[in-house]
Design a protein that fits this description.
By secondary structure, this protein is of the alpha/beta class. The protein contains 27 helices and 19 strands. Strands 14-15-13-16-17-12-18-19 form an 8-stranded mixed sheet. About 5% of the residues have low confidence.
């Protein structure tokens, strides 16, 4: 089929979808988006080809455009015609649920060609039946194969239950027995998300499926495996909904379709750079090293069972590794104690350079850990080979492999983190220590992370992708795509096109942005917060229906909560008081009952919150949402940029804050019928050049300023 024919077919599918939508209103921007997607992806070459055609289209579509209908109809119709598949990646569970329960069923109801869609989840969301049988008592008596992580800090909730007299071990046994019964009786499919009550993470980790403990088709429970059954369904799906973490974690692992042979949509695409940094970051625990006593014993036990002689002296290696880790831990605790107010804190290595007294022990750690890792991998390979060659030993081999696999992630994190900590090139890595005493014990971890997400995405993701759509309501900052393209590794890529589609809302008539001129400088945190809270409380007393207040820190929010009088205490709901869903439900119930209701929230409430109509008639922004200055990755990146003569504030801080501000103001107007006001108490938005830059990237609200309670022209 020609590219023109594919374009026409995709747009016909789009027209069919929008015409079948109840209460449909014509949205030129939505059709413009669909046309760009259809035209861009129709020329893409999929599969093996010496010189494939590629296309990545980056589309900012304002609130109310109807992004999902535009990209679903066009990409799914095109994929079906080309006999390929679509992977749709999101950043939030809420959007995944919307796609699976609303958007994709609506599309399936009107497309002429039937298709199958499925939700992809990580392996750890599924139970390992073999582990569950052992822990529920279905296996051999006294089998200690699958144990909870001894080194993990016990959750605070567990302490509370112990005080109440509940035995944690008894609770776990009841949980595992009930899960085993439900699984055997067909009342549960092994998916953690389908449990009526979510287990403690510590309890679930002991029975969760994981790559390092899995012998796959050599496992005696392979045919009944919840994870592989889900993988089979996924293989039959034409449309797969996943998340950014899973897509990046699955690169090269065949858990999802090969990205050079399918179409990909990244919705909520502004999260991709941060997700990339998270994926390629590494950390190792320096406090809890009991697993290193268990490691050589396990290796010897398994090698004896399969009559194999280990090539390395793993007992000595493990002792040497433990000693080197203890040495490093002592040096790092001294650094933390000298450079902070105690044993709680973060210490970052400037310019990514380790102190001289750390390099030798860290090099020893890397060498010993690599030696043990090779021994572990070699033994695991022998166990899998035995299971393949002698199926009668499949059960015992699976158990032995799982026992080895339980230790692999800890050892792998030491190998990876020590290697990154020792690495130093023209572009440094962020390297830091963190100490946490909140559980009553000292937990010390060492961390390392690349500092430029665009390089990671360019090398690992865009080198594989042939045809992709990246979309979000907030991809531009200060009126330009430049910042996102740089962060996402797409700058100067000839295959990339950009499009900004305006919202169908008339912001000048539907909304107003008021900037309050405080006397206090926002940089003077204490004086500014005091004045801002006074202004805010006066404004809150005027709220008739629903409102949202967004704070940049817990300290700031607490100051406002503490200042509430009795009348406002009855009106305000504070993030953290209850689960997010319950809080939003309580807010809606109050507003629908004709009562005023105000939500106090932090950064996470500034995105993805949909409160149309009277549920949010005013958004109050306590301060411009600059990121905390203490983030070690951002600190390291700023330090590097300064060292090469670049300005991190202009290049990174302002554009990143501009995107957040666009998201925060986007909570105000959600439909064509909404009328809302945004009140920002940070005078820098109008007074300073960087504030006016951010203002250029916001929707065209009617802007005014307020001085001493008097409204003036901006």
């Amino acid at each position: 089929m020609t590219s023109n024919a594919l374009t026409d077919l995709s747009l016909a599918a789009f027209d069919r979808v929008v015409n079948a939508t109840p209460g449909f209103r014509s949205r030129p921007g939505q059709r413009e988006m669909a046309q760009r997607i259809a035209g861009s992806l129709s020329s893409v070459t999929l599969g093996e080809h010496p010189n494939p055609g590629k296309a990545i289209t980056v589309i900012q579509a304002g609130t109310g455009v109807g992004k999902s209908a535009a990209y679903l109809s066009t990409t799914v119709a095109m994929a079906l015609a080309r006999k390929t598949r679509v992977v749709i990646s999101t950043a939030t569970v809420a959007l995944q649920e919307q796609l699976m329960t609303k958007d994709l069923p609506a599309l399936a109801a009107v497309l002429e060609t039937p298709f199958v869609y499925a939700l992809a989840k990580g392996r750890g969301r599924y139970v390992c039946k073999l582990k569950l049988e052992r822990l529920a008592g279905a296996g051999e008596a006294g089998d200690d194969l699958f144990e909870a992580d001894e080194d993990a800090p016990p959750p605070r909730a567990a302490f509370a239950r112990q005080l109440q007299g509940e035995d944690p071990e008894e609770r776990r046994m009841k949980l595992y027995d009930s899960l085993a019964v439900a699984l055997a009786g067909g009342k549960w499919d092994g998916d953690r998300d389908n449990l009526a009550e979510q287990p403690e993470p510590r309890d679930w980790s002991a029975v969760a499926a994981e790559r390092h403990t899995c012998t796959a088709r050599h496992c005696p429970r392979f045919r009944e495996c919840s994870y592989y059954n889900a993988r089979t369904k996924l293989a039959e799906a034409n449309v797969i909904v996943a998340n950014h973490d899973l897509v990046l974690a699955s690169l090269g692992r065949k858990a999802l379709p090969e990205l050079d042979n399918c179409l990909v949509v990244f919705d909520e695409g502004h999260h991709l750079p941060a997700t990339a940094l998270d994926q390629f970051a590494s950390s190792m625990d320096l406090s809890n090293l009991r697993w290193l006593d268990k490691l050589p014993k396990t290796l010897h036990e398994v090698s004896e069972k399969i009559n194999l002689t280990l090539a390395q002296d793993v007992t000595t290696l493990a002792q040497q590794l433990k000693g080197a880790l203890h040495d490093v831990g002592r040096i790092l605790m001294d650094l933390l104690k000298v450079n902070s107010t105690g044993y709680d804190g973060v210490y970052r290595f400037r310019n990514g350079v380790l102190p001289d007294d750390l390099r030798d022990p860290m090099t020893l750690i890397q060498g010993h850990a690599r030696g043990l890792s090779k021994a572990l991998e070699a033994l695991g390979a022998e166990v899998k080979l035995l299971a393949k060659e002698d199926p009668s030993q499949a059960v015992s081999c699976s158990l032995m492999y799982a026992k080895l696999g339980q230790l692999a992630p800890k050892l792998g994190s030491v190998v990876e983190t020590s290697s990154l900590l020792l690495e130093h090139g023209p572009q440094p890595l962020a390297k830091w220590l963190k100490s946490d005493t909140s559980s009553g014990l000292v937990f010390l971890t060492a961390h390392a992370c690349p500092i430029v997400p665009g390089d990671l995405l360019r090398q690992c993701l865009w080198s594989q992708v042939r045809g992709a759509v990246i979309t979000s309501a907030s991809l531009t900052s200060c009126g330009s795509f430049d910042y996102f393209l740089q962060e996402a590794g797409l700058v100067n890529n000839p295959c990339v096109s950009t499009l900004e589609v305006d919202s169908p809302f008339n912001y000048r008539t539907q909304g107003e942005l008021i900037v309050v001129e405080t006397a206090a400088d926002p940089k003077n945190a204490e004086a500014y917060t005091q004045e801002m809270v006074g202004e805010l409380l006066a404004d809150l007393s005027q709220v008739a229906h629903g409102a949202l207040v967004l704070f940049t820190s817990r300290v700031q929010m607490k100051a406002a909560v503490d200042a509430l009088g009795p009348a406002l205490q009855e009106v305000v709901l504070v993030q953290g008081q209850m689960a997010r869903g319950r809080l939003l439900g309580a807010h809606q119930a109050r507003v629908e009952a004709g009562l005023p209701s105000v939500i106090f929230g932090l950064q996470s409430f500034g995105e993805g919150l949909d409160l149309p109509g009277q549920l949010c008639e005013t958004v109050f922004i306590a301060k411009l949402p600059f990121s905390p200055p203490s983030d070690p990755v951002e600190e390291a990146r700023s330090e590097w940029l300064k060292s090469v003569g670049r300005d991190p504030f202009t290049e990174l801080v302002v554009p990143a804050t501009g995107i957040k501000l666009l998201q925060w103001t986007g909570r105000a107007i959600r439909t064509e019928d909404d009328h809302a006001t945004v009140i920002c108490y940070d005078r820098r938005l109008l007074r300073l050049p960087f504030g006016r830059r951010m203002l250029q990237g916001l929707p065209p609200y009617a802007v005014s300023r307020r001085v001493g309670g008097v409204a003036l022209a901006a």
